[in-house]
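Notebook, p. 212. Picked up where the previous page left off. The plan for this session was modest: take the two constructs that came back from the sequencing core last week, fold each one, and keep the raw output in the notebook itself so nobody has to go hunting through shared drives later. Recording the first one now, exactly as returned: residue sequence, then the structure token string.
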Amino acid sequence: MAEPTNDHDADNAPSDDEALLDPSEAAEVIPDDPDHPMDSEDEDPQSDGDRQEEIQLQNDSIAYFDLHTDSIFCIANHPLTPTTIATGGGDDTTYIFSADVPSPVLPQSYESNPYTSRSSLQPIAKLTGHTDSINALTYTLPSGDYLLTGGLDGQLR
């Protein structure tokens, strides 16, 4: 049986000197260019660049929920009642609330006074007990009898 040949012997490998490029072999030398802002073609040369555009934001949502005091990390819908929603977040709290609100015919921005204040959805339940952020929620299947919460404290409740 013949011995396998190894093409990567140390004798065939290029030396470190051969692997480097000699400066005389370079076709072009690119000078260092310090980082500076790009020119904008649409700017007026007379302006000082402080032009600001006003953007009017409007919220066309029919409801909102803002009782969490930190970021929301997970959301779960009830399997039989999809408008029953659970949220868990960085405030170590889970809220269960109903998003079943009457839907208007047109978005609020089409009303004669579109900037009326809406109140937040009220929770059905507030679940506490975790000592760190809640990052997992699920209802048991098929009927959603229980809600399981998992937190960064290593507990499943």
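Okay, moving on. Second construct, recorded in the same format:
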Amino acid sequence: MAESNTNAKLADINAPSLNILASDPSAVVIVNLHGNAAHAFSDQRPHVYNAHLSLSTPERPVHVLAFGLYPHDYRGFGHSTCSPHETGLITDTLSIVSFLATTLSIPPSRIILVGQSLGTAVAIGTISQFSAPSTNAPIPPSLRGVVLESPFTDLPKLLETYTIKGIIPPILSPLMPYPRIKNWVLSHIADHWDTAARVQKLVADPDVPLDLTILHARDDWEIPWREGRGVWDAAILGSAGEGELKVMEGRAEEGEEEIRVWEGGTGRVEKRVRWERVMYGGHNKLGTWEHGKRAVLRMVEKDGV
């Protein structure tokens, strides 16, 4: 879907579910941003949507808006036209959030972004637009929260370790004995998806509120859990030693291995970043496990919004 008509096609939607959403002042909307392979209805993704919908209650209804469920998938995915690229995917997501906030009049404080794999980079790229110096972002930077499942620090670094299903060696492994060739290949990557740098900037920005959860499974054989930890480390670097850092005891019987929470802010805005490493969930099914559902549930049940 081209940039010029994304908002127009969104505005033409008259789905009954969206009418229900627009008329429900207590509803929370989860915008689900899927990973790189295939499309919004592939493999485990409908199970993730069902897991999120299972968090709904009569008092706090939850609606799930996933790329592909309405007018389009990411550009270049599913039935969407054009070629996928970093700026385009971020623009598509901004259009979805803008549609919710303006056309449906849903306050951003009721919108949660949940990204998985590539979708984590799309989510962070989207909220980073709120703090860009020349941003034309159509909504204020006050989303209810962001959950990252199986994120990576940046694409060039990821390609040095990324493996498909833990079976095929890392993509760049044949070039490891030839560092000049490897560096040349990395220097020609068009989209860097620098999530770590963006998170560091978001944490450091005194004017941007942030509630971010980073979740990674030890048994993720495609994107190693250290990539997710690298995103957390960037957040702590952005805090510049301010705020409060808590290291919490994980519940071994529930597969939790490491939980760290940082809380800070200027008094004018609040910031919270949570890191969880869990034992199980793999790369693609983390959102259907209890850890993934609890991470989203914490955002849904937040008070004061």
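Notes on construct two before I forget. Residues 86-103 form the longest helix (18 residues).
Flagging for discussion at group meeting.
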